[in-house]
Write a structure and sequence with these properties.
This protein has 18 helices and 2 strands. By secondary structure, it is an all-alpha fold. The protein is globular and about 65 Å long.
C-alpha cells in the first residue's frame, strides 16, 4: 500500500465529522513546509507527535499542579492533569463529531508553559517580568512561546496555528456558560499572542478560533475540579462533608461523578450546535464548585510563610542569573543547561531579561529548587 493511500486512510474519519469540526485541509502552519513523501500523518496528528516528543513536554513530569513538595506519590502532578484534560476533551470531541487529533494536540500542549510551583510561581514570575520590563507573563502564552520559539534549540516546532491558538486561549480560570469560536487568520492569532505581553488582562478577551479549542478550554476546568478535591481530601486539607449539598446533589462528590455529569451535560447541550454549552443549572453548580475549591483548597495550598519563601526563591534566582548574563559568567547554569543549546538568532535577538524568564519558566520544581539552593551556597561562600 502506498504512503499516499495510507495518508488518505488516516483521514477517512473526516467523512463523519460535524460541519463545525476543523478539517485537516484547514490547517495553517506558521511557516509553510513541504510534506515529505513518506509522511503518512495528517497535520494535527503530526502536531501531537511534535508536542509529546518535545523536551518541554518531558518536563511536565515534575511540575506542580496544586500541591508542592508533597511526600505522596498519589498527588496529581501537571503531567497527570494534562492527561485528564486530553481524555475528557477527546471524549467530548468524539461525541460531537469534532477533530480528535486537533483536540488532543491542544490538550497535550496547553500547560507546557507552566512554571515551577504552579499558579503561585506564575504569579511571582509575572511580577519579575514586569520589573524586567518584559511585559506580562502568563503560562498559556509561555506554552505557545515554548513550542513556537524555544523548542529545537530556538527554531520552534512549527505547529499549526489552530493548535497554538487553542493553547493560547485555553485558560481554565475563566468559566463561561457557553464557548463559541471566532475565526482568525495567522496574523490575527499572532496579534492576540503579542497583545498578551503588552495589554493588561488582554487574555480575558481571548476566544479560541476552533470548536476544538473551545472543548479544551472547558475540559481544563473539568479536569481539575474533582481531582483537586480528591487530592485535598487525601492530604487532609479538605473534608468531603464540607462540600455544600447544593453542589453535591447536582454534580456528586467524587471526581468520577463530577466529570461524568459535566461531560454528559455538555454533549447534550452542544450536539449539532456551533458552540459548546452547559445547561444553566450545571453551569451554576460548576461555578459554585470552582468558587468552593478556591476558598477551601487553592487558597490553603500554601501557608503565608511558604508563599513568601517561594517569592524570595523566584526573585533570588532571577536576579542572580540576570547578573550572570550581564557579567558574562560562562560558568553559570543558564549557559551550560540552556543558552549553549540555543541557536545564534535567539542568543543575539533576545534580551538578557527575557532569557532569564524563559530559563526559569522551563524549569521543573526540582531543578528550580536545586538552582536556588546552589545560589544560596555561592552567596554564603562569597
Amino acid at each position: 500500500m502506498e504512503n499516499k493511500s495510507i495518508y488518505k486512510s488516516m483521514l477517512k474519519n473526516e467523512e463523519y465529522l460535524s460541519e463545525y469540526a476543523t478539517r485537516d485541509s484547514d490547517a495553517i502552519r506558521l511557516e509553510e513546509e513541504k510534506k515529505l513523501s513518506n509522511d503518512i500523518r495528517p497535520n494535527y496528528y503530526h502536531d501531537i507527535d511534535r508536542i509529546i516528543y518535545s523536551l518541554s513536554y518531558t518536563r511536565y513530569i515534575d511540575k506542580t499542579q496544586v500541591f508542592s513538595n508533597i511526600d505522596n506519590d498519589h498527588i496529581t502532578k501537571r503531567m497527570i492533569h494534562v492527561q485528564f484534560v486530553s481524555k475528557i476533551a477527546r471524549t467530548i470531541s468524539r461525541a460531537l463529531g469534532l477533530n480528535e487529533d486537533l483536540t488532543e494536540a491542544i490538550a497535550l500542549g496547553h500547560d507546557i508553559g507552566h512554571v515551577p510551583f504552579g499558579h503561585l510561581g506564575e504569579k511571582f514570575l509575572n511580577e519579575i517580568s514586569l520589573r524586567f520590563n518584559e511585559g506580562y507573563f502568563m503560562h498559556n502564552v509561555e506554552s505557545v512561546r515554548e513550542l513556537m520559539t524555544l523548542e529545537d534549540n530556538g527554531h520552534g516546532k512549527n505547529l499549526c496555528i489552530q493548535t497554538l491558538d487553542g493553547m493560547l486561549c485555553h485558560n481554565g480560570e475563566f468559566l463561561q456558560s457557553n464557548y463559541k469560536p471566532k475565526k482568525k487568520t495567522k496574523d490575527e492569532f499572532l496579534r492576540d499572542y503579542y497583545n498578551c505581553y503588552k495589554i493588561e488582562n488582554y487574555y480575558k478577551e481571548l476566544v479560541p478560533m476552533t470548536m476544538e479549542g473551545c472543548v479544551v478550554r472547558i475540559s481544563d476546568i473539568i479536569g481539575y475540579l474533582g481531582r483537586d478535591i480528591e487530592d485535598a481530601i487525601r492530604l487532609g486539607v479538605l473534608d468531603k462533608e464540607t462540600i455544600p449539598d447544593s453542589i453535591k446533589n447536582i454534580l456528586g462528590d467524587s471526581n468520577r461523578s463530577i466529570v461524568n455529569t459535566i461531560v454528559e451535560d455538555i454533549i447534550k447541550n452542544s450536539y449539532g450546535k456551533d458552540y459548546i454549552a452547559m445547561s444553566p443549572y450545571i453551569y451554576k453548580a460548576v461555578r459554585d464548585l470552582k468558587d468552593f475549591n478556591y476558598v477551601n483548597i487553592y487558597d490553603k495550598a500554601n501557608t503565608p510563610e511558604e508563599k513568601e519563601h517561594i517569592r524570595e526563591m523566584f526573585n533570588t534566582v532571577a536576579d542572580y542569573v540576570l547578573n550572570d548574563l550581564n557579567t558574562n559568567n560562562l560558568e553559570s547554569n543558564i549557559y551550560r543547561t540552556f543558552l549553549d543549546n540555543m541557536n545564534e538568532d535567539y542568543i543575539k535577538n533576545t534580551s538578557n531579561e527575557r532569557k532569564v524568564i524563559d530559563y526559569i519558566a522551563g524549569m521543573t520544581d526540582y531543578y528550580f529548587t536545586k538552582v536556588y539552593e546552589d545560589i544560596k551556597k555561592l552567596k554564603r561562600v562569597n
